[in-house]
């Protein structure tokens, strides 16, 4: 297929693009909402994968803009989101997209969605880390490139964690929620499942009126350190 991938987080975008291209698809990757709308206007895509939290124009508004274009009814559009919150799911449901995929992007789940079937439910218990995510990346990419991406993912997660802490200390719940969302997206793509769960829980808490995120934030902070160690070990080992 000819696919437009709209994802602002670089390490997530690169991993998803590699996965799609390895499966034989042609991919145009963009990192913000206005560019996604412009790309959709100038190309005949079979599928658009649209991140919800794009800069410049949120993903749900970008979908609405694409649907208003002369050819806007043609492409299938699936939202990509790391959000487990009711608000995030509602935004995806109401924008005119054809479905929702929860990050990380997986080819089997994408195939299921394109066939109109419901994806299998996540297991009731998940391990802290998904070694298969790293194995898949190692199979998709040369060892040096896989190691580079894994190392960059650790750097990105550390930076998001610092911004999250600063936002919480300043009482900036909007920025804190955005950082929790970003942490959930990156950690899922790179196999840090416990960190993804903690980030989703914090994002959900921050969405509540009168949120008191201290406990959830503490849980996330305690899980972030071992997640960074996991990624840095894999990067040092060449992605193996």
From TrEMBL:
Gene3D superfamilies: 3.40.50.2300, HPT domain
Stated name of the protein: Response regulator
SUPFAM superfamilies attached to this UniProt entry: CheY-like, Histidine-containing phosphotransfer domain, HPT domain
Keyword set, alphabetical order: ATP-binding, Cell membrane, Membrane, Nucleotide-binding, Phosphoprotein, Transmembrane, Transmembrane helix, Two-component regulatory system
Modified residues (Phosphohistidine): 181
Domain Response regulatory: 2-118
InterPro entries attached to this UniProt entry: CheY-like_superfamily, HPT_dom_sf, Sig_transdc_His_kin_Hpt_dom, Sig_transdc_resp-reg_receiver
Record-annotated HPt domain positions: 142-238
Residues with 4-aspartylphosphate modification: 51
CDD domains, alphabetized: REC_hyHK_CKI1_RcsC-like (cd17546)
PANTHER family assigned to the protein according to its UniProt record, in alphabetical order: HYBRID SIGNAL TRANSDUCTION HISTIDINE KINASE J
Cellular localization per UniProt: Cell membrane
Topology with respect to the bilayer: Multi-pass membrane protein
Principal localisation: membrane
């Amino acid at each position: 297929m000819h696919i437009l991938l709209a994802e602002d987080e670089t390490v997530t975008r690169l991993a998803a693009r590699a996965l799609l291209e390895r499966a034989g698809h042609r991919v145009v990757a963009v990192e913000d909402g206005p560019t996604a709308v412009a790309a959709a206007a100038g190309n005949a895509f079979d599928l658009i994968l649209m991140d919800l939290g794009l800069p410049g124009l949120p993903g749900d508004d970008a979908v609405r803009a694409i649907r208003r274009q002369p050819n806007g009814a043609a492409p299938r559009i699936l939202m990509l989101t790391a959000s487990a919150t009711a608000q995030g799911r509602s935004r995806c449901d109401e924008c005119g997209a054809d479905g929702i995929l929860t990050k990380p992007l997986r080819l089997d789940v994408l195939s299921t969605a394109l066939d109109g079937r419901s994806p299998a439910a996540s297991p009731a218990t998940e391990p802290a880390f998904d070694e298969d995510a790293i194995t898949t990346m190692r199979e998709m990419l040369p060892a040096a490139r896989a190691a580079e991406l894994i190392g960059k993912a650790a750097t990105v997660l550390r930076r998001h964690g610092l911004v999250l802490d600063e936002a919480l200390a300043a009482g900036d719940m909007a920025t804190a929620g955005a950082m929790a969302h970003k942490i959930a997206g990156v950690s899922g793509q790179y196999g840090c499942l416990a960190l993804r769960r903690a980030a989703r829980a914090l994002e959900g808490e921050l969405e509540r009126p009168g949120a008191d995120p201290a406990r959830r934030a503490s849980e996330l902070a305690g899980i972030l350190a071992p997640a960074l160690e996991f990624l840095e070990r894999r990067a040092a080992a060449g992605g193996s």
